[in-house]
Backbone:
């Protein structure tokens, strides 16, 4: 399922070789429901399952013999159940011997890390420890006194789960230590990291459990209203995400302290932050908690510019990309432009029969935007063009045919190399930044798709193999970037 070790460094080297200056990633948090990075157990914590065993061995924290029984897993798709179980067992061994095997400087760094990050780390470590003691069940199903955070019961749990809490902190230290080293390495290669945070947080998370007053959660600990979007390109019934919505008036009373803390942590890890579903700051789709779909929702006013003025005052410059896809209004665009946030242009949406060609023509994109051939929510360019995935969207077969005709007319080719056609279109566009999914560089089809929005399972499983990234493809993307004057 990937790690922050030698293969990640090799990928950074490959980006440099291909003339790339940006590496966009999915959210880094510990995954929860459906193994989705957008349903994290914490918006502040890192995914400890990405900790590199190779780097642990280099640090003397893990012996190679401990990995002899590690299962052989598929090279093509992640088996989350087996992988998580196997990695968790190895990491538990590392935690048990950490205080004995770690160097003096590492132990000192660990203590400093715990103090510096106590404002989120203490709650997170307690949350995951209690969750483990309840066999992984959501916090709404815990002992009622723990679910409701009765102080005396929390103090008792902190004593009883002391070892588990310490281990959770060790894993967070190891993750952030490895991540920051990888980020520094990328910077030496002139590669900046684009991170990603979902606007909403998971109901089953340390964030909601520890800060219930900031969310619409009722006395039964269930969300009274939840997030989603109305019927769209991907679903005729809309998308019911299920995240509890924010009590924005409470956030404003606190000076948006939780959000400022969240963004500060994000900027410590990456150079640019893409905020998923940016339009929710202007207005969001509110769905009654008992509704099974997103159809019967309504638009509700968000915090607007107040939150960003407050963030800017606290944090200074805000290197944010606004994910402004979907139902976008003039007010959403005005909010985005007020703070000079670049929006997103996705080429796959440009050829829809509903699009306005003048607005979506790559030659007329605003400079202050990011152009994508597709995103993690889209099919690959090859899969989209061929129409391989029959369940990926609300497009009819006739609409797919119309799109194919439109794209071929625009790029003036026979479509046999459609992924290179669209990559060239993105790179030659007027957008300041262009981001290409790795699957497109390798010309892969729907079998390599990362996520289907609205599908609750079987996502995020695609795995990359080095032999798929051919030397000629590496050279071709470099040549395209040079032709587009994107190599500096």
Residues:
């Amino acid at each position: 399922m990937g790690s922050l070790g030698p293969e990640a460094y090799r990928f950074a080297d490959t980006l440099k070789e291909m003339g790339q200056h940006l590496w966009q990633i999915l959210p880094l948090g510990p995954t929860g429901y459906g193994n989705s990075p957008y349903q994290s157990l914490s918006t502040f914590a890192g995914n400890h399952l990405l900790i590199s065993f190779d780097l642990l061995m280099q640090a003397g924290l893990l012996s190679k013999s401990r990995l002899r029984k590690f299962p052989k897993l598929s090279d093509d798709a992640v088996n989350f159940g087996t992988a998580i179980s196997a990695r968790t067992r190895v990491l538990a061994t590392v935690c048990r011997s950490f205080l004995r095997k770690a160097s003096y400087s590492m132990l000192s760094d660990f203590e400093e890390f715990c103090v510096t990050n106590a404002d989120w780390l203490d709650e997170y470590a307690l949350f995951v420890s209690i969750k483990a003691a309840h066999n992984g069940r959501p916090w709404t199903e815990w002992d009622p006194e723990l679910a409701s955070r009765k102080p005396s019961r929390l103090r008792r749990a902190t004593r009883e789960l002391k070892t588990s809490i310490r281990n959770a902190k060790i894993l967070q230290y190891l993750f952030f230590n490895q991540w920051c080293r990888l980020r520094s390495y990328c910077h030496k290669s002139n590669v900046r990291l684009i991170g990603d945070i979902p606007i909403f947080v998971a109901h089953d998370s340390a964030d909601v459990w520890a800060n219930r007053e900031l969310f619409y959660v009722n006395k039964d600990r269930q969300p009274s209203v939840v997030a989603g979007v109305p019927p769209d390109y991907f679903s005729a019934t809309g998308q019911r995400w299920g995240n509890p919505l924010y009590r924005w008036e409470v956030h404003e009373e606190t000076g948006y302290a939780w959000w400022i803390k969240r963004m500060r942590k994000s900027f410590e890890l990456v150079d640019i932050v893409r905020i998923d579903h940016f339009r929710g700051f202007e207005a969001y789709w509110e769905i009654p908690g008992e509704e099974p779909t997103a159809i019967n929702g309504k638009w509700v006013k968000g915090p607007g510019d107040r939150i960003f003025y407050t963030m800017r005052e606290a944090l200074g410059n805000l290197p944010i990309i606004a994910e402004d896809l979907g139902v976008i209004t003039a007010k959403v665009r005005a909010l985005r432009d007020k703070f000079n946030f670049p929006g997103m242009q996705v080429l796959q949406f440009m050829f829809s029969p509903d699009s306005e060609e003048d607005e979506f023509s790559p030659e007329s994109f605003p400079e202050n935007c990011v152009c994508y051939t597709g995103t993690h929510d889209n099919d690959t360019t090859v899969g989209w063009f061929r129409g391989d995935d029959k369940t990926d969207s609300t497009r009819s077969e006739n609409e797919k045919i119309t799109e194919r005709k439109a794209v071929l007319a625009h790029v003036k080719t026979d479509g046999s190399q459609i992924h290179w056609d669209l990559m060239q279109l993105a790179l030659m566009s007027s957008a300041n930044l262009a981001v290409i999914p790795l699957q497109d560089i390798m010309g892969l089809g729907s079998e390599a798709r990362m996520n289907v929005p609205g599908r609750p399972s079987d996502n995020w499983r695609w795995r990359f193999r080095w032999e798929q990234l051919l030397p000629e493809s590496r050279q071709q993307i470099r040549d395209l970037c040079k032709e587009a004057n994107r190599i500096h």
About this structure: The two ends are 33 Å apart (CA to CA). The mean pLDDT is 94. The longest strand covers residues 192-198. The chain has 20 helices and eleven strands.
